[in-house]
Design goal:
With 330 residues, this protein is α/β, with parallel strands linked by helices. It contains 13 helices and 11 strands. Strands 1, 2, 3, 4, 5, 6, 7, 8 and 9 form a 9-stranded mixed beta sheet that branches. A two-stranded antiparallel ribbon has the order 10-11. The radius of gyration is 21 Å and the shape is globular.
Amino acid sequence: MTPQRSIPRFSVITPSFRQGEFIERTILSVLAQQNVTFDYVVCDGGSSDGTVEILQRYGDRLRWISEPDQGQADAINKGIAMTQGDIIAWINSDDLYYPQAFEQVQAFFDAHDDVDVVYGQAKWVDEADHIIEPFPTEKWSYRRLQQTCFLCQPAVFFRRRLIEQLGALNVSLHYCLDYELWLRYGQKVRFHYLPVPLAASRLHEENKTLGQAVSMHQEVLEMLQSKFNRVPESWVLGYALTKVEQDTQISRFDDAQFWSFAGQLLWTSGVELLRWRRWIWPTTLIKMLGWIALPNLAWFRRRKLLHRPAQVLTVWQDGLPTKGRNLQER
């Protein structure tokens, strides 16, 4: 009798489309994971940039398909359906896992059967894999998650039973598919923060989130409105800032440009707050006016707000702009 093949512990899915420059590094970071069993599937959307040739070179160590799909969420859902592992991980075709990431996640899941989602620390890296800065992960708080997504997608691992109980990714979403999934799962199950680096998220000019930041923010606002019937102030203000940045295209500030930018930001923020929240709280108005106080002027100019690395998205929180969430790329 032929022995039954054991099911790998991890199901690893990489959605891909025209990331031939980076995908081999992603593949190698998965294949380098040790002391665990995993089934690795790459779901490519029909790339013609050399991706298929790279996949063919690793065909004995992973499975892959290359065909048109309905977008990133559809590709990930396909990969999940093609695998059976208990722990699901998806990593986009320009991101990286750190060594021992799977081993550490598996050890935690083995010791805590009541935990359904584990997420860890991460780094933002550039095209050459150089670290830009840490991703701003935080300890678990569902209320805080509604205000800003502090989970770095490739550093998130979850049990397959969640797909069966709470559903897979929403294929109608193209920018915030990961964020919506965490919000949906976070309402029902336990998340645990593992304070160790598990992954790196790459920032580069071709990222769809960075190249289409206004569209991304718009989708987030619509998703939050649909899910909670309200949109947190931080996301509305982040949307307003993104619109003004796109409209002004200022690379450096002098005094005149700063006051013009600040005026547009105040006006746009007010309009968007009324549109999405229907009122402006007095505390919010005070915060907005505080943006143009002299200490903030010095802060703006020191940071060269619009001259900072273009890869970093910004969300307004606590009265000052802070580097905010990087919704994940395909």
